[in-house]
Amino acid sequence: MAKTTNLKTGKTDKVTTNGIPTNGSPSKSGRTAVMKTYKIFIGGKFPRTESGRYYQIRNKEGQILANICHSSRKDFRDAVVAARQAFGGWSSRSPYNRGQIIYRIAEMLEGRRSQFELELEQQGTSRALAQKEVSQSIDRLVYYAGWADKYQQIFSSVNPVNSSHFNFSLCEPTGVVAIISPEKPSLLGLISTIMPVIVGGNTCVALASESEPLTGITFSEVLNTSDLPGGVVNILTGFEKELTTHFSSHMDVNGILYGRNSTGQMKTIQENSAENLKRVTLLDQTNWNTPEAQNPYLILDHQEIKTTWHPIGY
Questions:
Q1: Choosing a second label site near 79 at 20 to 30 A (CA), which of 90, 203, 253, 261?
Q2: According to the 3-state scheme, what is the secondary structure of 140-159?
């Protein structure tokens, strides 16, 4: 991985017809294909990072795959503002409608699976594993779409009380959740951490894989062209060590989900989250390729339990 560079230098790389840069060499056909620009995703739009910085990722042959935005604290703050603005509308939608929207995302990912498989292969995944990861990602979307209108039935309750009242406990979304998604598997890990958060009515800001970010940004294109309202999911790219402090210390973030395995970063999250009592979920030991990585208790991790008393009339 190359050092961070300023976009103002104007440095460019030519690419072959399959989209992989070859340091200025044209393809056999004599034309230079258009290299995809990978931006961040905030509020349903695709801005470049305000810092003007980027970093490069390369394939096994050392060829540059893409220039990736190196997100800053300002980018994260903008994403939190977008997530907070979207929270009211998203949380007030019916669970059934949220499930419909997530199922629509699965449909669209199915239609673009060849693109995701290619990007995973470009980043070093074998073809067989790339196909498996995309299939698992689609299935995981369908899984959480199915739970959208069912988790309340599992986790809510009517409680026995020693008075003339009904006592109900219901789930309510926590609010804005910051997500540091797993490094690998980059696509499946991102989807597996975002979906249980938003299916319960929360909004989020997610940090995509640092070493394999291509599918994260391409997935944001799927979100943007689905029925998902802008700001419900915001996806940044950049360096975990720089952004973890901002993710965990922002006072308008209600919860944080950490899906990697850095002991130092987990300590930072736990210390900073105490300032405004963020709900911290550590999934550093999760094997995202297994069925155990999907369950309704991951939805409950970012739900608050509200208890209501109602008098029994006579």
A1: 261
A2: HHHHHHHHCCCHHHHHCEEE
Whose CA is closest to 151, among 301, 300, 274? Answer: 300
Q: Look at residue 219 and tell me whether its pLDDT is greater than 70.
A: yes
| Phi-psi region at 126: left, alpha or beta (left = phi > 0; alpha = psi -120 to 50) | beta
Mean pLDDT for all residues in the chain: 89
Q: Does the pTM exceed 0.70?
A: yes
Domain range annotation of the chain = 73-311
* Residue 289 vs residues 187, 207, 248, 260, 285: alpha-carbon distances, Å: 11, 20, 27, 14, 12
Q: Indicate the fold that domain 73-311 takes in CATH.
A: Aldehyde Dehydrogenase; Chain A, domain 1 (3.40.605)
Cβ-contact 237, 70 below 8 angstroms? yes
Q: Is the pLDDT confidence value at 264 over 80?
A: yes
SS3 122: helix
Both structure tokens of 130: 């790339």
pLDDT (tens digit per residue) in 82-111: 999 999 999 999 999 999 999 999 999 999
Query: Tokens for 83?
Result: 């997530």
Is there a cis peptide before residue 185, judged by omega within 30 degrees of 0?
yes
